[in-house]
Write a structure and sequence with these properties.
By secondary structure, this protein is α+β, with helices and mostly antiparallel strands. 28% of the residues lie in helices and 38% in strands. It starts with a strand and ends with a strand.
Length: 178
């Protein structure tokens, strides 16, 4: 039996994060604005910099691990990031980005735990009133996850990006923190 443990990633997690991020970009290209071709050339030092602790951003990892008393092995099975808007007039908002859970780790609560962790982190930041995210409008499972977590759609942006010549619509969603 396995369970999921959520924690902020640090620069020491760069190799595992980069490998999972590249997997997500390769396997689900319509889920990300970035591409595998762009990020496969990132150095581990660059990736470590993205994971450096900061009061305005966090990247969480979902670690799939054996139950206590087992072999203690754990592996990074999911990732999700969030940053606070840098401009003073927008600092009441955060944006969730880069959510990916490995297909063999889905349906064990990892994605929901990542989203709940990020929302909790936003609440703890102080002054944050809204959490925003964007999702491919054709990704029904992700949309259902975000709706179950309390997010509502406020806009669908047509032709947000083009992947392999095919226009992709993007749904923008938000969660009011009260």
């Amino acid at each position: 039996m396995r369970h999921v443990h959520i924690r902020p990633l640090t620069p020491t997690d760069a190799a595992a994060y980069h490998a999972l991020r590249l997997r997500g970009l390769r396997e689900a290209p319509t889920a990300f604005a970035s591409s595998y071709e762009e990020e496969c050339e990132y150095t581990l030092d660059f990736v470590a910099g993205r994971l450096a602790p900061s009061p305005s951003q966090v990247v969480l990892g979902a670690f799939r691990s054996a139950l206590p008393g087992a072999d203690g092995v754990s592996d990074l099975a999911g990732i999700a990031g969030m940053y606070r808007e840098p401009h003073r007039k927008l600092a009441h908002r955060t944006l969730i980005w880069g959510v990916f859970v490995a297909p063999d780790a889905r349906r064990i609560g990892a994605a929901r735990a990542l989203i709940d962790g990020l929302v909790g982190h936003a609440r703890a930041m102080g002054g944050v009133q809204q959490v925003h995210l964007s999702v491919n409008a054709a990704n029904a499972p992700a949309i259902a996850l975000y709706q179950a977590a309390g997010f509502t759609s406020f806009c669908v942006e047509r032709h947000f990006m083009i992947v392999d010549g095919v226009p992709q619509d993007e749904m923008h969603m938000s969660l009011a923190l009260r």
